[in-house]
Amino acid sequence: MDCFYAAVEEKYDPSLKGKPVAVGGPAQSRSVLCTANYEARKYGVKAAQPSSLALRKCPDLIIVPPRFDRYKKESHRIHQIFHKFTSKIEPMSLDEAYLDVTDTCSHIGQATEIARQIKNQIKTQTELKASAGIAPNKLLSKIAGDWGKPNGLFTIAAESAESFLAPLAVDRLPGIGPKTKERLLQVGIETIEHLKQAPTEILLYAVGNFAPSLKKYARGQDDREVITHWERKSLTVEQTYAKDFHQLDSVLAQVTELYEDWYQRFSKDQENSRRVKSWVVKVRFSDFRRSTMEQSSSQIPSLQDFKELFKKLWARDPGELRLLGLGVRFTTTDKRKNVPQEDPLQLNFESPLD
Length: 354
What we know:
By secondary structure, this protein is an alpha+beta fold. It has 4 domains: 4-66, MutS, DNA mismatch repair protein, domain I; 69-156, Alpha-Beta Plaits (2-Layer Sandwich); 163-218, 5' to 3' exonuclease, C-terminal subdomain (DNA polymerase, domain 1, Orthogonal Bundle), CATH 1.10.150.20; 234-330, Dna Ligase, domain 1 (2-Layer Sandwich). It has 13 helices and 11 strands. Strands 8-11-9-10 form a 4-stranded antiparallel sheet. Strands 2-1-3 form a 3-stranded mixed sheet. A two-stranded antiparallel sheet has the order 4-5. It starts with a helix and ends in a 24-residue tail after the last strand.
């Protein structure tokens, strides 16, 4: 979906159309943006940007609070359209999904026509715009979908995949964020063709165990299936605060409310208690650095357990904290273990190219 949250807000309030709009918290709360429409992006406003910075870049920016009930409602309507064409659907977020239409069509031209019909039905039934990428695998379809934005439709056939990818900047590959890109540039890898031709030992030096996967992706190869069911890998809650915390006592005073929020969500599914693998707490500093502390345990953590973890984290890395988070990681048999991931410090809201 194109600028999904912002587009939904414009649908519910047509007076916003044609104006720079972003979805997020107010500047005085030090929140970051979930997304921004294309009018706002002309000024350099983008997802994961602090609201205060966005307003400096675009003084006329209209920031509306996120209303996830609306987004979930529209997402449900869109998925109803998907199900007219296939049952093999892997939702990646409220605004993005992979569809496997192999059983519906015999060649990529038919798949392109299906995508066109889906786009048209979304526009007719929801008044929202979508972009679609059609390709033989998930990796290429993601690239094709981003390539066609906004409101685009783009197809990459198997026989043309390598020639299409070759001249593209290396960060066009999903999973290569700013930090990985920087490491690749340091060894002279600027394009996907450079990546494909790079000696394995150079790649191992630059990106470690990610090297074999990158080699495959550079050739347009991706054998991941569309997974319709998977297990939750973690359950965490976090909160950004209006004022920094300078003392450990101030930090610990906030943990109770976070724990209550987390436990309310955790207790909704009895299966969660049987899959706990570790406890984790995380913080973000006033300079946007992040730090985490994790402890292996199959037990359900108590409030005191999380407080003890925060104490250990503080002892190791004290500072001015603006965000606190806590939760658990789960054991999983999820087949999606080879999904390309962005660098850990990147914030993923909507696709950066949506």
